[in-house]
Structure formats: structure tokens, C-alpha cells
UniProtKB/TrEMBL annotation:
<dbReference type="GO" id="GO:0046872">
    <property type="term" value="F:metal ion binding"/>
</dbReference>
<dbReference type="InterPro" id="IPR004036">
    <property type="entry name" value="Endonuclease-III-like_CS2"/>
</dbReference>
<protein>
    <recommendedName>
        <fullName>Adenine DNA glycosylase</fullName>
        <ecNumber>3.2.2.31</ecNumber>
    </recommendedName>
</protein>
<dbReference type="InterPro" id="IPR005760">
    <property type="entry name" value="A/G_AdeGlyc_MutY"/>
</dbReference>
<comment type="similarity">
    <text>Belongs to the Nth/MutY family.</text>
</comment>
<dbReference type="GO" id="GO:0051539">
    <property type="term" value="F:4 iron, 4 sulfur cluster binding"/>
</dbReference>
<dbReference type="InterPro" id="IPR000445">
    <property type="entry name" value="HhH_motif"/>
</dbReference>
<dbReference type="GO" id="GO:0006284">
    <property type="term" value="P:base-excision repair"/>
</dbReference>
<dbReference type="Pfam" id="PF14815">
    <property type="entry name" value="NUDIX_4"/>
</dbReference>
<keyword id="KW-0004">4Fe-4S</keyword>
<keyword id="KW-0234">DNA repair</keyword>
<dbReference type="GO" id="GO:0034039">
    <property type="term" value="F:8-oxo-7,8-dihydroguanine DNA N-glycosylase activity"/>
</dbReference>
<dbReference type="InterPro" id="IPR004035">
    <property type="entry name" value="Endouclease-III_FeS-bd_BS"/>
</dbReference>
<dbReference type="GO" id="GO:0032357">
    <property type="term" value="F:oxidized purine DNA binding"/>
</dbReference>
<dbReference type="InterPro" id="IPR011257">
    <property type="entry name" value="DNA_glycosylase"/>
</dbReference>
<dbReference type="InterPro" id="IPR029119">
    <property type="entry name" value="MutY_C"/>
</dbReference>
<keyword id="KW-0411">Iron-sulfur</keyword>
Amino acid sequence: MLAWYDGAARVLPWRAPPGSAPPDPYRVWLSEIMLQQTQVATVIPYFERWTARWPDFASLAAADDAEVMSMWAGLGYYARARNLLKGARAVVAEHGGRLPDTEAALLTIPGIGPYTAAAIAAIAFGRRAVVVDGNVERVVARLFAIPTPMPAAKPAIRAATDTITPDTRAGDFAQAMMDLGARICTPRSPKCLFCPIAAGCTARIEGEPERYPVKAAKKARPLRQGTMFWLTNANRVWLVRRPDKGLLGGMRALPTGPWEAEPPVLADAPTAANWRMLDTVATHGFTHFELVCALAAARWDGQTALAPGEWWPIADLESAGLPTVFAKAARLFREDGACGG
DNA sequence: GAGTCGTGGGT
DNA sequence: TACCCAAGACT
């Protein structure tokens, strides 16, 4: 694997060349958080903007919370951004501004779990650590043809990974396994002809490498419905801030009622007004449900009471840092020509 | 162990 | 198209 990696490693902004000195721990940490459940190509532009704005732990720890959330907008899983800020502040306050170099200490930092702790220890500090992410799970499940369905197979996969992890260059080994999983040992149509370890792969010898890792059938995503509100005042629109915990926590948003199985009502509007329903609806797929939102537009009369929020210039809505579901809805309101849009 | 938590790319 | 899934963590 290391020999293959020496010649085939992807060049990435947070990565050092194979066999060279470890990269900046801050950049390793940031990239690992951004890469959780997120593909490399999606992360790269966010990583570049982020490091230009906050190049180290000290600058990030001193950053404004709202600006951090806005910079993360569109990347998803927003708890990562909240924990990233907590993590940077913990590193400054409790570790002298430098990331600790052991897995156990790394695990105490918000946002760092078993995978990320092992990855940072190996990649940024050159320690031997058993790094198991989704790529490694797939490669190892195939290499050893592990028949146990996920997630029950996780302990066996970790044990098997331990047996093939080298004592030196564990970081390069981990990155080699992840590159292999991302480019060759892919979930569907693995390219075994280009695989450096195909000769020892039990799943390939069996003839159906795609069968691994074995997974149980998953259930269908339920439908949820709701209403989003577009309240305007001159050339501005009313935005709210969502509660810190839960779905899209801490993010700027359009006012919305709850998202539930039942059809929506207008009772959750941000203010009393002559709401006009648009002809179109906004749809968006989340991890565990599908959302269909009715769209209601109105002008504020300058009199009725408003819950906490802020007027935002419609022409500058791109800088509000709206999650994608709200950015999509905002586009529909503006295309409709709704009041002020 | 199971549910929650986004979004975009690939097929 | 509809579905799968990604360098997981947290509760």
C-alpha cells in the first residue's frame, strides 16, 4: 500500500507529500472535520476560504460565532461548525494553543471522535493509530470477505485493520487506504484491475467484491411538510436564527412552521399579514426525511408584532449564510416576484 | 444500538 | 429517475 501511495497519492491542500514531514496539525484537524461524511471535491473550496480567513487555532478561537456559521453555510451537518469553534477554543484555553498529540487527549476535544482522533494522531503526529473510516471499512471488509452485516462487523473490521497497519508511516497508510477506497475500491463497480492489493483480496477471488461490506436493508424516508414565510419590508426580507440545537441549529433561516407528517397551516407565521400562497412548493431531501414546503409571501405593514429576527437586504441574500434548503426557497420566492423580490 | 444530523455527486 | 453514499459525531 505504501509503495502504491508513493506513486499515486492525490495532491490535496491539507496533505503533505508521501514520506515527508507531517503537515500543520491545524490544517489536518480542520480538513478531517470538514471531510466527515463529505466528499473531497466538496471540501476543497471551503477549506481554502477557511484557512485564508482563519489560518490557525488562535484566530479561529477569537472568531465571531455568526461569521463561522455563515462560512460553513452549504456544507451541511452544522453541528460540525459549532463543535469546530468549541474545539478551537478548547485547544487555546486548555492546551496552550497546540493540538494534543495522543488519541486519548484528542478524543476529549469537541467534534473529535474515534476516527478523527486516530487520523490526526497518525497523519499530523506520526503515531501508529488504527484509522477506520467508511473507505477503510469497505476495503477491509472486501480484503477479508467479512460476512457479518454492518454495523455489527465494526469490531472485526477494526481488528483486521489493526493487523495490517504498519508501525511506521501509519498516517500515509491510512491515507493510502482512503485513496484506494475513494478511487479504486469504490462502493459500486470497483476497479480491481488497478488495485495494488487485488492478489490478496478474498472478495475479488470469490467473484463479487461489491457484496461487501454486507448491509441490512434500510427503511424508506418519511415525508414531512411545512410552510416557509417570505416577509418583506421595502427591499428587505425577515430572517430568523434557528435554535442552537437540532436540525440546521444556529443557522440563519427563513421563518418556518414545524416540519411534520401533517399538512401545514399558517398559524406559525412570523406576524399577522395577508399571506399569499405561491403556486409552487419547495422540496428538499434530508438524511432521514423528505421535505415539501408550501411558500407564503406577504408585506409587513409596519404595525404588527414580530418575533426576534432581522431585516436583510434581498439583493445581498447570498451573504446571509443560509442553509441550502432556505437558499432554494428564497430563489423560488424571488423568481415568483414576491413582494420586494 | 438506534436515531439525528445536510448536501452534492455518481450511477 | 431514484437511490446510494460520502475521511462520523453525538445523544
